[in-house]
Specification:
By secondary structure, the chain is an alpha+beta fold. It folds into 5 domains: 186 residues, PAS domain (Beta-Lactamase, 2-Layer Sandwich), CATH 3.30.450.20; 112 residues, 2-Layer Sandwich (Beta-Lactamase); 107 residues, PAS domain (Beta-Lactamase); 75 residues, no CATH class; 140 residues, Heat Shock Protein 90 (2-Layer Sandwich). It has 16 helices and 27 strands. The chain has a 5-stranded parallel β-sheet with strand order 1-5-4-2-3, with helices on one face. A 5-stranded antiparallel β-sheet has the order 7-6-10-9-8. The protein has a 5-stranded antiparallel β-sheet with strand order 12-11-15-14-13. The two termini are 46 Å apart.
Length: 661
């Protein structure tokens, strides 16, 4: 589809598996707004349906006759047109020719942020017509800033791209791209698409830590490593050793990504041999060797360039002086920390300095230098001897290890002087970086698979444990109906207590699995009603133990959350208070504070030792998973739970839940 647009217009592209159904929805959408859309398609059945709904139709050859300011709906899956249009254009395609299948939601928002059209899906994301965009978003400072920037981008550029965090138990992000639809200077609605980018953001956070370690390694190695983002033309990172190399601060380089390019010596600009001079801030000159590689996204698109800069000034100094065959120069070459070899016209080694002997493991005087060169680079080396332009050559040491040298050379008389710098370890940094990225991506996939297997196993275990418990209870009831002596009755009562404890543990295990695998059903909840229900459910248990139950619960107390889980939370806390209080009072108090509803569940019971550990799994006799689950439920509601206790005097459990806004 090509649209040659010389007029003011809005083009919206939609991707759908069922193109016909989406076009019908768009026709009804435009008719409700008082527009009579024009449908362009090569499919007769679609054109007939468009006429039935009240739309106009055109053939491709009649495009030029469409009146100005008309709304067009183009079936791009069967139609290819080129034209000039004045107004709104909907382009609908199944995307199979150029796009992979991607989970996404396409939508229309009115000027106040309410969804007027929703299509497509993202697993676990509930978006419906009539909802406000904030209904699906977590209330956070980051989201508020993104929503404010969204309005500015739409007003200034007509389009907006934002990254927003969804509501839910676990962090989850979507990328939202929108285009504004304007009536004059008034923003009428936005048309956009959202896709799930959670895995990408989590992976980027893991990689950020690794990148920091890589920068530290490069600094200790005496090299500069930087990564330039191709899309933004900004540094993703740059190692602090840049300050030593150029004399300019790290902040100056980050502010001006072209500063490094400006420091290249004028004579070396445009020379593409990987080695050039930099003019430092103090005016001194340093030679650097540049090694680079392109970083690609998972889809193969280039996204960044990673570069290693190595200061080779000493190498270049030696290379410039090597033409003078004096004993002083020979001594300097012998002790230099660069690879230096002198070769005669037959290719035999006349001299190797200490660095060359160390790297090769040979005192190769009299041997052909070609013997040290790897098979893959022999042809390149022979070309280098004929035309000594700086290049990289691989050699094989006596130990069999391959080493990469950046070499330069010159011929004087019948002698060839070869100078090289060992780049093996430094070049390996980039490869190590790429390998670690692949390992982390694979590790993330495996952890996700393990998590799914664990959840499935736990669900099966809970299901399989409940059936024998029910059977045991039933059999005990049958036995109790018989005439039994006191000893047998006592043992049956003990078995019932054990079965009840096991049943509680299985129910806790079930709730723990649900917490990890299911999302909250978020709604407006009257917490005072929930608290009264929990008290009523346990009033009988308190009465049987002769306990007083004191409540101070004003109404209404409105929070946002999952009513069923909040009820089980307070049944658990109040039940524990009754269970571990032999005499006295159990109290439930609630008070509305600035931003929270503060609920206290207190008792005059035996108290708790090591109160800081009670929210851990299986802590304490008879505790099971109850308090661990309670903590997870509160945290899923963006709240806080903690306890205070004095042994022998009682305990207080505090629950703070955000108020409904």
């Amino acid at each position: 589809m090509e649209v040659d647009n010389d007029y003011e217009m809005s083009v919206i592209v939609c991707i759908a598996e069922d193109v016909s159904s989406l076009i019908e929805e768009l026709i009804e959408h435009e008719l409700k707004k008082g527009e009579k859309p024009v449908v362009i398609s090569n499919r007769d059945e679609l054109k007939n349906r468009a006429v039935e709904l009240g739309a106009d139709i055109r053939d491709v050859k009649d495009v030029e006759e469409i009146p100005p300011h008309q709304v067009l709906i183009i079936d791009a899956s069967t139609t290819h047109i080129t034209g000039k249009f004045d107004g709104k254009v909907w382009i609908v395609s199944d995307g199979r020719s150029k796009l992979e299948s991607v989970e996404a939601i396409h939508f229309i928002l009115d000027s106040e942020g309410y969804f007027t059209h929703v299509g497509g899906q993202i697993e676990g994301v509930d978006v419906r017509e009539g909802m406000h965009i904030t209904d699906i978003l977590r209330d956070s400072p980051e989201n508020r800033v993104q929503l404010e920037n969204r309005i500015k981008m739409l007003e200034e550029e007509g389009v907006a791209t934002t990254t927003l965090m969804l509501k839910g138990d676990e962090p989850r992000w979507v990328e939202v791209r929108e285009e504004g639809v304007w009536r004059g200077k008034e923003l009428v609605e936005t048309v956009g698409v959202m896709r799930d980018i959670t895995d990408l953001i989590l992976l980027e956070r893991e990689m950020e830590e690794f990148d920091n370690r890589l920068v530290d390694i490069s600094t200790r190695a005496g090299s500069v490593i930087y990564r330039m983002n191709i899309l933004t033309a900004q540094y993703d990172y740059i190692s602090p050793s840049i300050e030593t190399l150029t004399g300019f601060s790290l902040e100056e380089h980050m502010r001006d990504p072209k500063l490094l390019e400006k420091l290249i010596h004028p004579e070396d600009r445009g020379v593409d041999n990987g080695t050039y001079r930099l003019i430092k801030k103090d005016g001194s000159v340093r030679w650097v060797r540049e090694s680079r590689r392109v970083v690609r996204s998972s889809s193969g698109v280039p996204c960044a360039v990673e570069v290693i800069l190595t200061d080779v000034t000493e190498l270049m100094d030696v290379q410039d002086k090597i033409g003078k065959e004096t004993e002083d120069i020979r001594r300097a070459i012998e002790t230099a920390n660069v690879f230096v070899v002198v070769i005669d016209e037959m290719g035999r080694i006349e001299f190797m300095n200490s660095e060359a002997r160390k790297l090769t493991g040979y005192d190769g005087k009299g041997r052909l230098f070609d013997e040290f060169v790897s098979e893959k680079d022999k042809k390149k080396f022979r070309a280098f001897i004929r035309n000594p332009r700086r290049t990289d050559i691989s050699i094989i040491s006596a130990s069999g290890k391959e080493r990469v040298l950046h070499v330069g050379g010159m011929k004087t008389g019948d002698k060839f002087y070869l100078v090289g710098l060992d780049l093996t370890e430094k070049l390996g940094l980039l490869e190590e970086h790429a390998r670690k990225r692949r390992e982390l991506e694979e590790m993330y996939k495996k952890l996700k698979e393990i998590s799914n297997i664990r959840t499935e196993f736990m669900n099966m275990a809970v299901h399989d444990l409940k059936n024998p418990i029910i059977a045991l209870k039933g059999n005990l009831e049958l036995i109790k109906s018989k005439e039994l002596d006191d000893e047998v009755k006592r043992r049956i009562e003990n078995m019932e207590e054990i079965i009840d404890a096991l049943s509680i543990l299985v129910n806790d295990l079930r709730d723990a699995v649900k917490l990890e695998s299911q999302r909250l059903k978020v709604d407006r909840v009257d917490l005072s009603s929930v608290l009264h229900s929990a008290v009523n459910m346990l009033q009988g248990a308190a009465f049987e133990k002769g306990l007083n139950v004191k409540t101070i619960i004003p109404s209404p107390l409105v929070v946002e959350g999952d009513e069923d889980r909040l009820l089980r939370l307070f049944v658990n806390l109040i039940g524990n208070a009754i269970k571990y209080t032999d005499k006295g009072t159990v109290g439930i108090e609630a008070v509305e504070e600035d931003e929270h509803i503060h609920v206290k569940v207190w008792d005059t019971g035996r108290g708790i030792q090591d109160v800081d550990k009670i929210f851990e799994k299986f802590y304490g006799e008879g505790m099971g998973l109850g308090l661990y689950i309670a903590k997870k439920v509160v945290e899923a509601h963006s709240g806080r739970i903690y306890a205070e206790s004095t042994v022998g005097k009682g305990s207080v459990f505090h629950v703070l839940l955000p108020k409904h806004k």
